[in-house]
Amino acid sequence: MKEITLGIIKPDAVEKKIIGKVISMIESTHLNFVEIKMVSLTKTTLEELYQEHTGKAFLPELIEFMASGPVLLLLLEGENAVNTLRSLCGDTNPDKALPGTIRRDCGEGLPKNAIHASDSQESAKREINLLFPEHQIV
Ligand code: CMP
């Protein structure tokens, strides 16, 4: 089924100047880029983005890190887009991710794991509506 999904190239990867490497890895899949946007996310927006992690011990560190520098927002589409991007990202923990995945090849650890990817079509819609308000999806 044709889906949309959201990727976020995180501040660690932007700082390391490996945006091109991450984009190139995504371009090796069948996914298409609909829109790309470089932004600095506010803590308020990040609290909304990561609402499912409310109360978790790592949330303050995650929000601090995600607000520490610019990120690249990726709006992607294609067949099975959510799982395609998540497979390419690999395990959340770069140490556990397989070679050839973005997090293993580009991440440093937690929370500096190079990329965020929506975990379901519902999350993708919520996240895209939050971060690409010009692309409201119903
Ligand atoms: P992401 O896919 O953006 O979803 C939630 C993020 O929380 C995750 O990637 C990591 O960056 C971060 N994260 C998850 N678990 C931990 C942890 N144990 N310690 C620090 N950060 C974490």
Question: Can you describe what's shown?
Answer:
There is one protein chain. This protein has 138 residues and is of the alpha+beta class. The chain has a single domain, classed as Alpha-Beta Plaits (2-Layer Sandwich). It is 39% helix and 20% strand. A 4-stranded antiparallel β-sheet has the order 2-3-1-4, sandwiched between helices. 32% of the residues are buried. The model has no long low-confidence stretch (mean pLDDT 97). Adenosine-3',5'-cyclic-monophosphate binds at residues 58, 61-62, 92, 110-111, 113, 116. Belongs to the NDK family. One of its GO terms (biological process) is CTP biosynthetic process.
Question: How many angstroms does the end-to-end distance come to?
Answer: 17 Å
Taking Cα atoms only, what radius of gyration do you get, to the nearest Å?
A: 14 Å
Overall spatial form = globular
Based on the structure given, which CATH architecture is correct? 2-Layer Sandwich
CATH fold category name: Alpha-Beta Plaits
Spatially, the strands of the biggest sheet line up as: 2-3-1-4
Poorly predicted spans: none
The averaged pLDDT comes out at 97
Annotated CATH homologous superfamily: Nucleoside diphosphate kinase-like domain
CATH class: Alpha Beta
Helix and strand run: EHHEHHEHHEH
Please tally the helical runs, counting DSSP H or I stretches of 4 or more residues. Answer: 7
| Proportion of strand residues | 15-25%
Instruction: Characterize the biggest β-sheet.
Output: 4 strands, antiparallel
What is the total number of structural domains?
1
Classify the secondary structure makeup into a structural class. alpha+beta
Roughly how much helix do the residues carry, as a percent range?
A: 25-40%
The ligands found in this model are: adenosine-3',5'-cyclic-monophosphate
Tell me the total number of β-strands: 4
